[in-house]
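Page header: ASSEMBLY MODEL / two components / 642 residues total.
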Amino acid sequence: MSLQDFFLNLGYNKNALFVGLALAATCGLLSVFIVLRKMAMISESVAHSGIGGYAIALLIGYYVDYFNHPSWGPILSQVVTAVFCLVTAFVIGYVAKGKHVSEDSAIGIFLVASVAFGLLLLRFRTTLPPRALPAGYPPRPRVADVENVLFGGITGVSQMEVFIAVGAMLLVFAIVFALYNEFVYTTLDEEMARINGVRTSLINMLLLGMIALVVVVGSRMVGAIMITALMVIPGATACMISRKFNQVVVASLVICVVSVGGGIIAASNPPLGRYPTGPIFVMILFLVFVSVWVIRKVFKPKLEAHSDGAGSPEPLGEDAHPHAHGH
Amino acid sequence: MTFVPLVPLPHTHVDAQSDLGTHQGVDVVCVHGVSYAYDHKPALVNVTIHVKQGSTLGIIGPNGGGKSTLLKLMLGVLQPDSGNITILGKSPRAACLDGGLVGYVPQRHTIDWTFPITVRQVVRLGRIGQKPLFKWFSAADNAAVKESLNAVGMSEHIDRPIGGLSGGQQQRVFIARALISKPKILFLDEPTTGIDQAGQEQFLQLLDELKKQFGLTLVMVSHDLRSVVAVCDRVACLNKTLHYHDRPKGLSKDVLFRVFQCDMDAVLDTHSGLHDHTCCEHDHEGHEGAGCGHDHSAANSLAKPAFSLAPPKRK
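Prediction written out in full:
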């Protein structure tokens, strides 16, 4: 196969490439905040509740024809899924706030419960008798489509989905860059940020909302099971590369976009053509993570950009043991 | 205010004969009759504290004595169950949101020091309240960062990631962040914890310089009696209630034992008789289960320091 063929195959999946890159950029940006705020697990549970949300949307689609409308159907379904994700996230937050259940357990419980709920609902949907749709509507989702939502796929990505993904990307970038320092401060020290006048509850809600948005847009291609990888691995890898916030953000973006771009190219070509795309993206990201980790571990490159060189005399006499605790 | 002879009452109050009546100056922080409970478990009971402009108040007390709770109330993070607090005539929350009134130096362990961020960025975040929403920081903000870092002697570390700093340097970064908004009152939470003796002395010296340079009023919470006495001109001893609120030289052994060692029952016992060290120790052993063991030794070593212990005041 020539190089030309290699990229020509992409032609069939141009929409998939656009959706993938928009999704990757969004995830790369959010990933830094998710990782540094230690929200990997909560984003995982939001992602998994996407299965429940999708199942509900599918069931509504069985009874309400408009949910299958060629252009508005997908958007309606995604809105239902997003709402379900967000409600799950806020319920987890609410339950964890009380003193009866820790946040850790709350996440563990709701994560599995929403998956179980979704899977039961999906099976229930298959027991329903066939029901005709109005003329001009695309056929109802098949088993393969459902699988795509769980594990990801790049076949048959519509133009509408490209618009949604790019729109979501622009929205997330606009929010994060408008409130960049507020996000950084809340991530660094939530209480201090609140004392200094940042409305941290709004920032937290925005972050959860954006995670839900990414889950909804991304589960189509990466799958609800694995979308968390895109939200955790780039940020975690980037944190090993730099000790400066802005550099970490850029590194995370680059890692995510390059990995997903590479994954789509790989998935568009024969050797991996029939494989689900989610695992391909995840494995590429994982390899990048492992490589960086090994480089850090083995070669120990120095990250701290000392303006004055390490071990320089400290002008005002610091304590002898930099990280000593206690007296 | 009428003259009241000093009696070591169990739930002692503001020392009425002392500086509150005589000392010149305006109260910048007024804590009046404040009580606060976590889930019906009282943390503070009827606390009244006044902080004069330009003074340095040290709030001391054992762990769990309500020091941090009081600080959170003064910063508007918590709302008192009863009583009220004003900071320069405003509510604590309003004073914090004003931006130019209150600076806060939290404990060093409140943040993850491996967080990928430079000193410049951390200090600049202190100006987030003055920055218009949806705007990034301006050149003026960057100039303020340099000025603030200069004041704490950290300007050459401006582009270093915070992960590479020593404990004392981390403390200075926090102070620079608090100072960048040009506050009138600086609150410090356990500022000397985890810094060795030499570092502490330099730190306290720095605080003194900053206080003069910026005309600050300092409110410092600490269980480190030595540093509080060294730097503060007013002390408040807090263990659920206020046991003492005056100049540090008036601090008696009696008060210290009440605050640092005994739980509230023991305090009541202490009040009834002429208790001295041994009596208190006896009481203390009776309440060993309350987990005062550590504080006991701490208070013992602290009872010796460089200030003279006045004899317990009694009628």
